[in-house]
Amino acid sequence: MIVSLITDFGTRDGYVGELKGVLLERAPDALPVDVTHDVPPGDVLTGSWVLARIWARFPPGTVHLVVVDPGVGSDRRPVAVFVGGRWFVGPDNGLLTRVLEGAVPLVEPVSGDRSARVVEAARIGLRPLSDTFHGRDLFAPAAAHLAAAGAPEDLGPPLDVGELVRHPLDRPRRTADGARGVIGYVDKFGNLITDVPSDWLPAHYRVRVGNSEVRHPGTSFADVAPGEAVLIRGSAGTLEVCVREGRADVVLGVGRGDPVQVVEADADA
């Protein structure tokens, strides 16, 4: 069984190795897949966005182990949640917001039927060995149990899904002359990944972001000169604002959460 891993642990200190060791000791046939361990420390919103982008790319039955946990050791709940044919194991701190709300950038999963949204949740009742490493002590054992086809009810008592923590979402909306949204994520290259669906974009358009206006829709970075901004229909199914051979976040002076406005333009604009 596949177990995908998203954490803010980094790879310097061996924490990922400990987590995988526990996982494989308890579920020797599990296949751990590293999605990322470079979520900024404690950045639940970034972890939520990354999870939303990738979860449906994995086959039904996958266990997604997601540990971005600034409240470790507190009274926040450790949970296992079943959504759309996959299990999600981690802290109940809003990491699952976009999965639970269906606000996933990808239009359709590669496999499985996400329309059959059977959702259930359980509170993980395992006893941790430490107050500060629940990834190893709670979440990895729970993920291993599910990966080995263990009964979810063995993890702990059921939870009302409506009680799970959700962060408020700034949802994109259509306007009379285009659309409005926000920058949902800034990737390693400084590309600004918005939440505006690509299929909302007019044939000809421009974008206002921060104090700048970008007027160059394209199909690749090569459509503009080095240092210039270009508008791309991104791989996640949403509008991206990029700078050829540069960082759009730095050049345009914006970041996650900043507003984006798409405005229909004349063909010769």
Summarize the structure.
The chain is α+β, with helices and mostly antiparallel strands. It has helices at residues 15-26, 44-54, 97-101, 134-147, 248-252, and strands at residues 2-7, 31-36, 63-67, 78-83, 86-91, 119-123, 158-159, 173-175, 178-186, 192-197, 205-209, 212-214, 217-218, 229-233, 238-243, 259-264. The protein folds into 2 domains: 2-163, Rossmann fold; 173-264, Elongation Factor Tu (Ef-tu), domain 3.
Chart the SSEs and their pairings.
Elements: E1 2-7, H1 15-26, E2 31-36, H2 44-54, E3 63-67, E4 78-83, E5 86-91, H3 97-101, E6 119-123, H4 134-147, E7 158-159, E8 173-175, E9 178-186, E10 192-197, E11 205-209, E12 212-214, E13 217-218, E14 229-233, E15 238-243, H5 248-252, E16 259-264
Tally of distinct domains: 2
Largest sheet: 9 strands, mixed
- Summarize model confidence as the mean pLDDT: 90
Shape summary: elongated
Based on helices, strands and strand pairing, what is the structural class?
alpha+beta
